[in-house]
Amino acid sequence: MAIFEWRKGATSIDRAGATALHTQISDAIRARIGAGTWPIGQQLPAEPDLAAELKVSRGTVRRALSTLIDEGLLTQTQGRGTFVVATAAIPKAEGELRGIAEDFARQGLHLTTVVLRAELAVPDVAVGAELHVLADEPVVCIERVRSADTTPIALLYNFVRADLAPDLEKLDLVGRTLFDLLELHYGLALAYARRMFSARAATGDIARHLQVDEGSPVLHLRQTAFLADGRPLEHSEVWIASDDVHVSMVLERPQAHEVAS
């Protein structure tokens, strides 16, 4: 299927060149993702198929894919395969992992929450790949609106591994934050997260729930939170009213000897 399509559009491998084969392969896949040929949710051909088609070892293919996984472009799920989860490499930034409500609480602002949905359901392919669940495995799906002074500021879609947080959908999702429930009720210590922001236009339910005009600019946050052992626990798709919320962070500049030349 997609192997021949990819080969047709990819730069041929230069086996005599100075650039390593795995780098050439990761560059070609990255280009396909960047061009939108392989969108978010796209499943890549299996490693043996890619290796056979490119006439390289599986180790070379695996190293190329590992590069893109480290960049946050791909994710691999045992039993499912390799999937595209982002369309641009995500720069790394140091910071504390906190939810929206926790961030605002530190500023002295209390958010009110309306739960629109909390149930077990089978996620779409992209979310399933992020959480490393099987194709027919349900997860806890939570949809909420958070408001400040009656003004909606965020529409949140959270997806949580049901095998790690059973019956989460039955707990208090209004008075307690999701991270609070996961850590204190279930004893699951969140260690880190992969987060990406992008600018989008509000459509349909997003515009209605945020009470903005369709086509208005909103911030879109995609985040996957992991346990210390590397298992993904929660995936978020959050839509934020950009007129009311700004994203800021404090970054440290590496010392001169740490900056690559």
- Classify the beta-strand content into a percent band: 25-35%
Distance between the termini: 42 Å
**Named CATH topology of the largest domain:** Chorismate lyase
The CATH class of the largest domain, by name, is: Alpha Beta
How are helices and strands ordered from N to C? HHHHEEHEHEEHEHEE
CATH architecture of the largest domain: 3-Layer(aba) Sandwich
Order of strands across the main sheet = 3-4-5-8-7-6
| Shape category | globular
Please outline the major beta sheet.
6 strands, antiparallel
Cα-based radius of gyration, to the nearest Å: 20 Å
According to DSSP, the number of beta strands is 8
Number of domains: 2
CATH homologous superfamily title of the largest domain = Chorismate lyase-like
Poorly predicted runs are: 1-11
Q: So how many helices? A: 8
- Helix percent reads 25-40%
Structural class: alpha+beta
Mean residue pLDDT: 81
Descriptive overview:
With 261 residues, the chain is an alpha+beta fold. It folds into 2 domains: 2-84, Arc Repressor Mutant, subunit A, CATH 1.10.10; 100-241, 3-Layer(aba) Sandwich (Chorismate lyase), CATH 3.40.1410. It has helices spanning 2-9, 21-34, 47-54, 58-70, 100-106, 125-131, 178-185, 204-210; strands spanning 74-77, 81-84, 112-121, 139-148, 151-160, 190-201, 217-227, 232-241.
Keywords:
disordered N terminus, 2 domains, alpha+beta, Chorismate lyase, 261 residues, Arc Repressor Mutant, subunit A, globular
